[in-house]
Specification:
Layout (H helix, E strand, L loop, with lengths): L1 H22 L6 H26 L3 H5 L2 E4 L8 H17 L1 H8 L6 H6 L2 E4 L2
Antiparallel strand pairs: 1-2
Helix pairs in contact: 1-2, 2-4
Length: 123
């Protein structure tokens, strides 16, 4: 997850720069800040969904040889990937996902358990 955060920082930095350039500096406070946050959430969702739907791996997951799968299916369905992302947005920053994985019998994150997905190690 730490490696993923480093990559997200770079994606977020580039997206924020694009937002400020396109909006003429809007985003420092008020509605601009809310729009920036929604834009970043959309960009992050796009990053994860693009990676998960095209091969089940983000760049960090490729590095660590981990793949996201939906048991019984060739690829992770789009709605399942979106559900996993939405659940992870809440569970990961609050730490619930990590605490859950410690006590889960299969060592799954909470958002994987609820979305019906699994992380598998590749050979």
């Amino acid at each position: 997850m730490l490696y993923e955060v480093i990559l997200l920082f770079a994606v977020g930095f580039a997206a924020t720069s694009l937002f400020f350039y396109a909006s003429g500096g809007l985003g420092a406070s008020g509605h601009g800040r809310t729009l920036l946050q929604l834009f970043l959430l959309t960009v992050f969702a796009g990053y994860f969904l693009w990676c998960w739907l095209r091969g089940g791996q983000t760049l960090a997951m490729k590095t660590w040889k981990i793949r996201l799968v939906a048991p019984g299916q060739d690829r992770v369905p789009p709605l399942t990937a979106l559900l996993r992302f939405a659940l992870a947005v809440v569970a990961v920053p609050t730490g619930i996902a990590l605490v859950w994985a410690i006590f889960d019998r299969d060592r799954q994150f909470l958002h994987d358990r609820l979305a019906g997905t699994r992380l598998i190690r590749l050979a």
